[in-house]
Amino acid sequence: MRRWLAFLPLAVLAALGGLFGLYALNRNPQVQPEAMVGKQLPNLTLPTLAEGQPVPLREAAAEGPMLVNFFASWCAPCEIEHPVLVQMKRDQVRIVGIAYKDAPQNTQGFLTRLGDPFSEILVDRDGRAGIEFGVTGVPETYVVGRDGTILAKHTGPLTLEAARQLAARAR
Are the beta carbons of 55 and 128 closer than 8 angstroms? Predict the structure, then answer.
């Protein structure tokens, strides 16, 4: 009887492993949560990178359709995506960048090194804006209409084709 008690923790561990394995087999890892699509921009005020002046995000949306891009200097996929954002700026697409959980001096260094594709750069130092948007990781890009409605979301680094599709939705 005591021998069976010694193997009980191993049996429980194996059962839990089997349950997690079955869950993983039935879960689609490509599903990307889009809880904010179709909803209004969160009512957020974030400081600018340059002067630290507070900017209400909804006021920025009132200036016209835009892409909102969450990025960070420590994010390797953000660096991969950056040339696409620079090209979108050349194509006259308005992009508001939100530096996510990043030190302002690191963000400035990142933009100095790679170029600044943003019409405005806001700082989300503590990640609260990311929580309000439902950011699951950077980079993430949102299409926002003139009325402040989030029209679409793209998770991961943008390709030029995906960026142009998002920009077309913003117009």
Answer: no
- Rounded to 5°, angle at Cα 138 from 72 and 161: 105
Longest CA span, the chain: 76
Q: How far apart are CA 159 and CA 157, in angstroms?
A: 7
**Cβ proximity of 44 and 57 under 8 Å:** yes
Rounded CA separation 71/39 (Å): 22
pLDDT, tens digit (0-9, with 9 covering 90-100), for 75-132: 999 999 999 999 999 999 999 999 999 999 999 999 999 999 999 999 999 999 999 9
pLDDT digits (tens, 9 = 90+) for 52-76: 899 998 888 888 889 999 999 999 9
> Under DSSP, is residue 97 helix (H, G, I), strand (E, B) or coil?
strand
Check: CB of residue 42 under 8 Å from CB of residue 57. yes
Ramachandran angles phi, psi of 58, nearest 5°: -65, -30
Token pair in block for residue 46: 């974030």
